[in-house]
Amino acid sequence: MEVAAKGSENINQPEKSKRKWVYAKKPAGKLYNYRQVVGYSLLLFLFVAPFVKINDNPFLMFNIIERKFSIFGNIFLPQDMHIFLFGMLIIMVCIVLFTAVYGRVWCGWTCPQTIFMELIFRRIEYLIEGDWNKQKKLNEGPDTDAKAWRKILKHAVFILISFLISNLFLAYIIGVDALLKIITEPVDQHLGGFASIWAFTFVFYFVFAYVREIVCTRICPYGRLQGVLLDENSVTVAYHVSRGEPRGKIRKNSDEFRGDCIDCNLCVHVCPTGIDIRKGTQLECVSCTACIDACDAVMDKINKPKRLIGFYTQAEAEGKETVVEGKKRNTRAIVYSCILLVLMGIFGAMIFSRTDVDGRLLRAKGSTYQFRDDGTVTNLYSLELINKTTKDIDYVLESDDKNIQIQIVNPISHLPREGNAKLSLFLIAKKSSIKEYKSNIKLNVVAEGKVIETMKTTFIAPPSK
Ligand code: SF4
Ligand code: SF4
């Protein structure tokens, strides 16, 4: 997708340095205010979620080492991998649909990388070194004591915050309890954990102090996929070419026709990825909307309508979208949004309908019915119960058919936390009660008076005459 406009320089980047360091002007405006509300709320959630417990389980935990996940306090063990993989698939479909309709809004508004970078690290930089032009002057100026102190202070704060993020990251991976042990117990008992905290601290510090926007523009696979995820109907942050061009400085007493863009370059100065959105939609744009705010402020000053830069499709930005095309696009957005809601609903239902105990009831291999002398007939089964919770469970087995009795060969009534139990059992029925050759049977696992798992099987015996 390319919305071309007359080229302009990325003037907030020094020309000679190997890497073009981006000095982004401090953003301000309505959208930035909304972004702050969204971003700081997400940060609060991010910092609180691993510490909140539901049923003694973390609200969120992604322990990839032990393949144990906790989502909304529901523990997912390797046995639940199918739910987890299906969930991942749903999330991927959601990302594709969402991006096709709304562009890269996730990146600019909710991605942790952007939130940490723009709402924490860059704000600290503004506080210590000033706005973009002061930072540039400081970096390009002579080495003085004042400069050294500012740099030391900034990087010390960066390392401190990176240390906090590293702890937070580990809290999500190994859980808060394991993290607290690493922090509170002697270092020699947790050398691996201690080394991990510092390794991640320096990774985060390096990312936020030096790598920065390169994560979004070159490293992130989602960013690289934009080319295939976006199409001409996707709404992205775009410059309204037909309204803005031909751009040019305001000249008094000039009859020459000019577009609304006064070529002030403020949209370029505020861009955290250092691009000029007037050159057309680019992979580097993370849809942070800082340029929309900047341009809106300019339009206000020169008494022109806002949204010279805004959320537009390619046709809209070029002033070519017809009413029919607009309606089609809106219909597509509504349909995709509905699909998104349905998929998220399915994922939510899968998570909340998941049982604490998994049971696998199978007829014993090669067995058939057997008659007993007391006038009953039996079928032999093997049963495996898996406890997916972090609590021990005492249970009993019950049949929902009063004519069926259960005889457990190796009675086990205790399921250890995250453990399993393997049983052999007979289902027993009176010969006189058998109505058909194959009857459907349900067995319930009952704990604390509640049915926590139901298993289905069949009972085979010749019907009584
Ligand atoms: S902020 Fe608006 S007016 Fe200024 S250069 Fe950018 S598009 Fe043109
Ligand atoms: S072009 Fe605008 S929306 Fe895109 S990254 Fe730059 S400032 Fe953000």
TrEMBL record:
Query: 4Fe-4S ferredoxin-type domain spans which residues?
Result: 248-280
Keyword Disulfide bond on this protein?
no
- In its UniProt entry, the species of origin is given as Sphingobacterium zhuxiongii
**Keywords assigned by UniProt, alphabetized:** 4Fe-4S, Electron transport, Iron, Iron-sulfur, Membrane, Metal-binding, Transmembrane, Transmembrane helix, Transport
GO terms for molecular function, please? 4 iron, 4 sulfur cluster binding; metal ion binding
The UniProt entry's GO CC annotations, sorted and at most eight, read: plasma membrane
Has the keyword Acyltransferase been applied to this entry? no
Per its UniProt entry, which superkingdom is the organism in?
Bacteria
Protein name (Swiss-Prot/TrEMBL): Cytochrome c oxidase accessory protein CcoG
- Pfam families for this protein: Fer4_18 (PF13746), Fer4_5 (PF12801), FixG_C (PF11614)
Which residue windows are transmembrane per the record?
A: 34-52, 83-103, 157-179, 191-211, 333-352
